[in-house]
Amino acid sequence: MTSRYNELLWIFTQLPHDYVVLDTETTGLPDEKGLPDIVSLGITVVRNRETVESIEFEIRPQRRISEEAQAVHGISNVQAAKFESFDFQWQRIAEYLNDQLIVIHNASFDWPILFDHVDRWDLVLPKIQGVFCSQKAAIPWAQAINLPCSERGPSLDTLTKTFDVEDLRAKGEGIHGAKIDSCQAALVVEVMRHYGNMGET
After folding, report:
1. Residue 143 dihedral angles phi and psi, to the nearest 5°
2. Which residues make Cβ contacts (< 8 Å) with residue 180, sequence separation at least 6?
3. Which one of 3, 19, 50, 156 is separated from 96 by 20 to 30 angstroms, measured CA to CA?
4. What's the rounded Cα separation, in Å, for the pair 157 and 9?
5. pTM (2 decimals)?
6. Which residues have CB under 8 Å from 133's CB, separation 6+?
């Protein structure tokens, strides 16, 4: 892969070596009724730039899952009705987030939804180091090489293919999942860190 514009990935070289990656699957997209509900929440723990743990929390939504969302993540309303509620699982989730930098691919989608759930259940968000959006951070580099890129930035699928990173979703017939997507994002972030460190060659 060309290294001509690697300097545009410099922000990834500034990430700490320890962080957590978060991803959610939801009942759909925001609409006139407000933000969607979380159906599953995945967290991948990165220590010294290596994935050491991945976990998925299956969460019972209060809203119905749209057909479009079911097609993306494969979770039906019947399945989701058997999941535990968000507030019941929050303490465990919060322990993973406590005092961590949280990396999210498309943070402008996932983070407000998580925050909405914390408010809805009158819970407390733990102290964190901040939230880093790997999708938006990749925009300058993606635009420089004419990579397909929405206003949110290049998709995780696009970056996976461009950097020739192992496609974890392929093992699950392309189905999205909060756990597998957080793992995929961690792989991509570390590859972008690697190229950002290379500079001009």
Report:
1. -65, -35
2. 42, 168, 169, 172
3. 156
4. 18
5. 0.94
6. 104, 105, 106, 107, 108, 153
Give the integer Cα–Cα distance in Å for 139 and 42. Answer: 24
DSSP labels, 104-168 = ETTHHHHHHHHHHHHHHTT--PPP-SEEEEHHHHTHHHHHHTT---BTTB--HHHHHHHTT---G
Q: Which two three-digit tokens encode residue 31?
A: 């609409």
- One of 3.30.420.10, 3.40.50.720, 2.40.30.10, 3.40.50.620 is the CATH number of 6-192, namely 3.30.420.10
Distance CA 63, CA 53 (A): 30
Instruction: Give the total residue count for the chain.
Output: 201
Q: At 157, list the tokens.
A: 């699928």
What whole-number distance in Å separates Cα of residue 189 and Cα of residue 105? 9
Record the tokens describing residue 94, joined without a space.
Answer: 């919060």
Gap between the Cα atoms of 51 and 4, Å rounded: 28
Tokens found for residue 88: 């019941």
User: Residues 172-201: pLDDT tens digits?
Assistant: 666 779 999 999 999 999 999 999 988 543
Written as six digits, the tokens of 2 are: 């060309």
User: Sign (positive/negative) of CA torsion 52, 94, 19, 1?
Assistant: positive
Q: Which residue has the tokens 């020739």?
A: 164
